[in-house]
Each structure stands twice: as C-alpha cells, then as structure tokens.
Amino acid sequence: MNDPSRYLLIESQGPWAGPNAGRFLEDARVLAEAGHEVRVFLVQDGVFAAAPGVPELELLAKAGAQVWVDDFSAAQRALGAGRLSPHVTVAGMDSAARMLLSEGCRNVWH
User: Fold this and answer.
1) Which DSSP letter does residue 51 get?
2) How many other C-beta atoms lie within 10 A of the C-beta of residue 9?
3) Rounded CA gap, 81 and 62, in Å?
4) Which of 28, 59, 78, 110 is buried deepest, with most CB atoms within 10 A?
5) Quick one: CATH architecture of 6-109?
6) Could you tell me which of 18, 73, 19, 17 has the C-alpha nearest to residue 50?
C-alpha cells in the first residue's frame, strides 16, 4: 500500500447491542490488515468488548491494530485491568483527544 492512513475508531456500544458492534470491530481489522494504522477506543458500554475471550479483539491484535479502553468507562463498570483482555491498553480520554486532533487521522464513532 502506497499511502496508509491513520484511523481512530471509537466504539461506544456493548457487544450485546446487536451485530453492528461486531461489524465495527471487523471493519477495524480489515483496515489494519490493509496496512493502515488503526486504533480502536472502547468507551461507555463498548468497554465490555474488552473482556477476555472476545474473538474480534484477538483478531484485531493479530492484524496489528491497537485497542484502547477508556479508563473512566471501565472504572464505572467495575472492569479493572485484571478483568480485561491482554490485547488492550487502558487509556484516558486525553490520549483519544490527541489522536482525534492529530493531522491526517480519520475518525469514526459508533
């Protein structure tokens, strides 16, 4: 790929919200496999997708995407670091804001 792009995909819906949440993570995987720099930021109920054993997260990690979990959303839902997939990084909203505002970053919120 000659011109890889950077993407920040923000997921606010939990896995039980229907198939669209899974498809959104699948889209992130496809972008990463195509050579793009991809970060997925899980916020609000989306943090439940960071539980161990979620296949979409494992596939995202294998594709080279980074998955961030909002520290505030995780704390509000009693999801400490010990209850999260090893494929995720706990991050603050400030990290997401820096990425959102960085030049050339394409942002998608679901």
Assistant:
1) S
2) 22
3) 21
4) 28
5) 3-Layer(aba) Sandwich (3.40)
6) 73
Q: What residue has token string 């950077």?
A: 6
Please state the pTM of the whole predicted model: 0.88
Q: What is the identity of the amino acid at 70? A: D
Report the greatest alpha carbon distance in the chain. Answer: 43
- Strand partners of residue 6: 37, 105
Token pair 């942002």 is found at 107
CA dist., res. 77 & res. 98, Å (int): 24
Q: Summarize the confidence of residues 51-70 as an average pLDDT.
A: 90
* Token couple for 81: 């670091």
Across residues 48-70, what is the average pLDDT?
90
Task: Write phi, then psi, for 41 (nearest 5 degrees).
Answer: -110, 115
If you search the block for the tokens 């909002």, which residue do you land on?
A: 70
